[in-house]
TrEMBL record:
Pathway: Steroid metabolism; ergosterol biosynthesis. It holds the Pfam family ERG2_Sigma1R. It comes from the Eukaryota. Belongs to the ERG2 family. Keywords: Endoplasmic reticulum, Membrane, Receptor, Transmembrane, Transmembrane helix. This is C-8 sterol isomerase.
């Protein structure tokens, strides 16, 4: 009896010690994860290939080269990008027939993915009908270059709207949210830089909870996955 009591006590003491050790271990793993992520976040700039200023110039030359012709602007953008960036540095999807619906934040349009990697994406997004919704709160900076039409936006506290017209760029810094409206028909070249995979839940939420458009979901995952992997394979993170 006595022996077993003693051994029980020992066991209890040991498991208390183990409990502490386990939690210290968990805390130190958490600390290391946080340190790793903040380090990655601090150095992510080195993986960026595209330049927001260059892209805005490109949007403007595309508009000037093909006035009133959205397809012409897109083809101008593609020709320039494929001439500017070697295929060894970045993967560009030149299949401009590869359009998919995009439902997010209550807004709806179509997108063509020109580039997608872990830290950047470049798409053509818009609709000839107009749409309106929540921009989402993203883990990336978003440069929305208007090609055709107008985009309107506001955030709580503003009593007047912001208005973006062709050639202008609407910068949405990471963490910011607005209501936006693509008034009537509007097309834009959207460039995002930051942590792209963390933006995907917002990109899929409307499909999963509302449209249940499985072919679109499938194609979006297929195209984005293919582009991200293709970029990883040439070392573009
Ligand atoms: C691409 O567009 C930029 C911006 O308009 C321009 O400076 C550059 O010369 C163009 N490059 C090619 C290869 O057309
Ligand atoms: C643009 O094209 C549309 C349809 O072809 C036409 O109605 C409109 O007048 C054109 N606008 C300009 C500025 O050329």
């Amino acid at each position: 009896m006595t022996v077993s009591k003693t051994s029980n006590k020992t066991v209890t003491k040991n498991s208390e010690g183990n409990w502490l050790v386990t939690w210290l271990r968990r805390l130190s793993i958490l600390g290391m994860l946080i340190a790793t992520f903040s380090w990655l976040d601090a150095i992510k700039d080195r993986w960026y290939v595209f330049d927001p200023v260059f892209l805005n110039q490109l949007a403007n030359t595309a508009i000037a080269a093909s006035p009133n012709n959205t397809a012409g602007m897109i083809s101008h953008i593609l020709t320039n990008l494929t001439q500017t960036y070697p295929t060894s540095v970045v993967r560009i999807n030149t299949d401009s027939d590869e359009w998919v619906f995009n439902n997010a934040g209550g807004a709806m349009g179509a997108m063509y993915v020109i580039h997608a990697s872990i830290t950047e994406y470049l798409i053509i997004f818009g609709t000839p009908l107009g749409t309106e919704g929540h921009t989402g709160i993203h883990t990336a900076d978003d440069y929305f270059n208007i090609l055709v039409g107008e985009q309107w936006a506001f955030k709580p506290g503003q009593l007047e709207m912001e208005k973006y017209t062709p050639g202008m760029v609407h910068l949405m810094p990471r963490g910011v949210a607005k209501q936006y409206k693509m008034h009537e028909g509007c097309w834009a070249m959207e460039y995002a830089r930051g942590w792209i995979p963390l933006m995907l839940p917002f990109g899929f939420a409307d499909t999963l909870t509302s449209t249940l458009d499985v072919p679109t979901l499938y194609n979006t995952v297929r195209i984005s996955g293919r582009e991200m992997l293709g970029n990883l394979m040439i070392g573009k993170i």
